[in-house]
Design brief:
2 domains; Serine Threonine Protein Phosphatase 5, Tetratricopeptide repeat; 255 residues; mainly alpha; 64% helix; 0% strand; 14 helices
Length: 255
């Protein structure tokens, strides 16, 4: 069974004792190790997840443990510091967005060494913090592959989770997308492409703007930019996307 966290007592049961933080970390690591399989170890290579310290545990099992542990900022920090791939994935799932700082985001971003850690931290945690938009702009100027990918993975996550953001925020972000589209590195250009496609599926106005950007990129003399533009155009102008946007209720704004 997963290591149990402290739970609120009720009238019928007495509260279980809380494990010291480091004991809880060790219990989580032991549980993860017990779920290691050869297939999951091989899947890391199969899905181009390059990491040097790993057990080989499925995301489904990591989510089971995360649900059992619940949100806990201190535990997340301690799990991250172990350096284990699965522990860092778990940290991204159990940390508390309201307690994440900009400094922490930069520190974790510097530690990103594969696309799965990068994307999970951005999709499950960072895009729910008040610093998300600031980090998109800052990280888009990073030189390391996964740090720069993080900017566009985060932007991609914001298209889904930031329900309050207006179209103007994403229109400005398209400038960053277009600027980064010529980056030839595989994990950067794929994130740029996904961010462009995600923006273009958020609203009819953003679809029109994203299509214009994609069309420009599709005629670029640079190979990476052409790939980003052509691939995005196929989806953004598809019947499925245009129909979905046509039936989406318009957002009502007040002066």
């Amino acid at each position: 069974m997963p290591p149990k966290r402290k739970s609120a007592p009720d009238k019928a049961t007495e509260e279980a004792p809380q494990l010291p933080l480091q004991d809880e970390v060790q219990a989580a690591l032991a549980w993860l190790e017990s779920k290691s399989t050869r297939r999951d170890r091989e899947n890391l290579a199969r899905f181009a997840i390059s990491t040097s310290k790993f057990f080989g545990v499925s995301m489904a099992n990591m989510k089971v443990l995360a649900k059992d542990l619940g949100r806990n900022h201190e535990l997340a920090a301690a799990l991250w510091d172990t350096g284990w791939y699965e522990a860092r994935m778990l940290a991204s799932l159990v940390d508390e967005p309201a307690r994440v700082t900009a400094t922490q985001m930069d520190r974790w971003c510097r530690d990103f060494d594969n696309w799965a850690i990068c994307d999970t931290a951005c999709f499950a945690l960072f895009d729910r913090t008040p610093y998300a938009w600031r980090k998109v702009a800052q990280w888009s100027r990073r030189r390391d592959e996964f740090g720069k990918r993080a900017a566009f993975a985060l932007l991609w996550g914001l298209t889904v989770h930031d329900k309050r953001a207006d179209d103007e925020s994403f229109l400005q972000a398209l400038l960053l997308v277009e600027s980064a589209a010529s980056d030839e590195r595989n994990f950067v250009k794929k994130a740029v492409n996904m961010a462009l496609r995600a923006i273009g599926k958020r609203s009819p106005a953003l679809n029109a703007a994203a299509v214009v950007v994609a069309q420009r990129l599709a005629t670029s003399p640079e190979c990476a930019a052409r790939w980003v533009g052509k691939d995005a155009l196929r989806e953004l102008t598809s019947t499925a996307v245009t129909r979905r946007l046509a039936t989406r209720p318009r957002r009502v704004t007040t002066e």
